[in-house]
């Protein structure tokens, strides 16, 4: 089965950039997603990238995909205290399958 | 446009009781997914449904769990004879016809006492 790994914790200062990393094993991943989860809440879709793209930018968010190394990252520019949350990467793999495979999440703590 | 709605938000059941979790997809979405999140873990896929059809139930436990998405009304995830290990957050997601994006509801937090 697919393995998706993320580091557990990241702490940054307000105003700095945050980079959250994700590695995966299945090279047939078609779409790769970043979700944000605040305490006690559901998951908010932040952005996603198709596997034939290297980069996608959306306001403060930049997604980088290195297919060769099976590495996905999310960069948040000018990180704010409201960005404190758990960030999940998720992958859609396999032809015709719709099940997302999630990493275990990275808890981002933003220090004022 | 209302988001994905789930109810109840919190559900407490005693061991052996039944739990029914409901999910109303976003307007215009006809694909529904259920995921389970154990404490301090990521989400695990359970089942994917379209109206009146189960498309992929590869993540569903073989016993006690069932799901439906009728022609009218919400999708239901049903857990019979709940055990303590069923305590988790259950999330529903829905997707538009393009199928690229899955939008999640707020979840139902099930506690089995």
Short description, anyone?
The complex is a heterodimer of chains A (about 110) and B (about 110). Chain A has no helices and eleven strands. Chain A has about 110 residues and is mainly beta.
How would you characterize the overall build of this protein?
The complex is a heterodimer of chains A (112) and B (113). In chain A, 36% of the residues are buried. In chain A, strands 2, 4, 5, 9, 10 and 11 form a 6-stranded mixed sheet that branches. With 112 residues, chain A is mostly beta strands. Chain A has strands at 4-6, 9-13, 18-24, 29-37, 43-50, 55-58, 61-66, 71-76, 85-93, 100-102, 106-111. Chain A is built from no helices and 11 strands. Helix content of chain A is 0%, strand content 59%. The mean pLDDT of chain A is 92. The termini of chain A are far apart. Chain B is mainly beta. Chain B is built from no helices and 11 strands. Chain B has strands at 5-7, 10-13, 19-24, 31-37, 43-50, 53-56, 65-68, 75-79, 88-95, 103-104, 108-112. In chain B, the strands form 2 sheets. In chain B, strands 2, 4, 5, 6, 9, 10 and 11 form a 7-stranded mixed sheet that branches. In chain B, strands 1-3-8-7 form a 4-stranded antiparallel sheet, with no helix packed on it. The relative contact order of chain B is 0.33. The model of chain B has no long low-confidence stretch (mean pLDDT 93). Chain A binds chain B through residues 4, 31, 33, 35, 41-45, 48, 88, 90, 97-105, and chain B through 4, 31, 33, 35, 40-45, 48, 55-56, 58-59, 91, 93, 95, 99-107.
Beta-strand percent range of chain B: over 45%
Strand elements of chain B, count: 11
Q: Indicate the low-confidence ranges of chain B by residue numbers.
A: none
> N-to-C terminal Cα separation of chain A, in Å?
40 Å
List keywords for this structure.
heterodimer; A: 112 residues; six-stranded mixed β-sheet; five-stranded antiparallel β-sheet; B: 113 residues; mainly beta; seven-stranded mixed β-sheet; 50% strand; globular
